[in-house]
Write a structure and sequence with these properties.
The protein is an alpha/beta fold. The chain is built from 14 helices and 12 strands. Helix 3 packs across helix 11, helix 4 packs parallel to helix 11 and helix 12 runs parallel beside helix 14.
Length: 389
Amino acid sequence: MRLSKTITHITGGGSDGWELFVKARKMIAEGHKVTELTIGEHDIKTDTRILEAMHAAALGGATGYAMVPGIDALRDAVATRLTTRTGVPTALENVLITAGGQAALFAAFRAALDEGDTALFIDPYYATYPGTIRSVGGVPKAVQASADNGFQPTFEALDAAARGAKALLINSPNNPTGAVYSRDTLEMIATVAKAHDLIVISDEVYDTQVWEGEHISIRALDGMAERTFVVGSMSKSHAMTGSRVGWLVGPEGAMEHVLNLLTNTNYGVAGFTQQAALFALGLGEGFEEEIAAPFKRRRALVQKALEGQNLVRLSPPSGAMYVVLDIRATGLSGDAFADKLLMERHIAVMPGESFGQAGAGHIRVAMTIPDAPFEAALKEIVDFTAGLV
């Protein structure tokens, strides 16, 4: 079968970044006990009240084709949420409901790029970013942000990379680093975007997980609403990862065209999951804070576990559900360290290289298991590291 170059080059001919995760899952399937600190999957499950709302909606008949843009009540709720949280007036016409944040990301790049167009993204990055760009025929181009600068991009690097580019993807709070972009950083990004006429795609799925500073949507900055798509999701804020309910927000004129794409891809999101999402949003900010609280608490556990030693260094996260640990003192790459840790201590973490070259010599630890085993795993990682030097 002669397949398209687009689909056979989604990974760029190299790694997709998920090898260690797959290896850990295979070990678990073979009966090995593995402490998983790999993906952003909450250790608490979707709240029973949300599941009951989903069940009631399904029994009530919301099992047929839902409106492709999303049910109006949910689009209104998302619009109200964004208006309240960001200060940017947002209406139903600015919102389309998608099958999770990943589908929104794909739709945004499909809207922004023609075949061969260059899209920038900040390195370190979530593993699917370059593949999503390639999947629409775009050319991914990484802009490195260093740990020494708190993983915030610089004007010099971004401005130099932007020449000839069409779009820029940003993610704050950031996966994998936990960096929350400051107002100065966002103003700088806006300046570059306007100077180079870039479409900005802002992945804001971690907007409820901010431990230091504040979440600022770049869409709220002067002159940015008309050139920005915002990706959002129920996955992280409401522990609804498997429900696959997300959204894309953008200028009304652009969303009319994105709707045509959704009609020809998913053709809508299941009505009963949309009804559950609507119910979940109605639980308010207090509920979202409950979902986020374990990660803030575990961040403090990481800081405590790393006290009194300097072999494993923490890049202090300001948000999100991960920490990035610098293990360069061992002389190992993140890949080699993570593989050795898995095989010898049965602890699975993600190599920093899975998230780009700026992550080399680091590992990402997901704070997604209960406190006691999480704290024990951290001590094990420190002990393991000490044995390598």
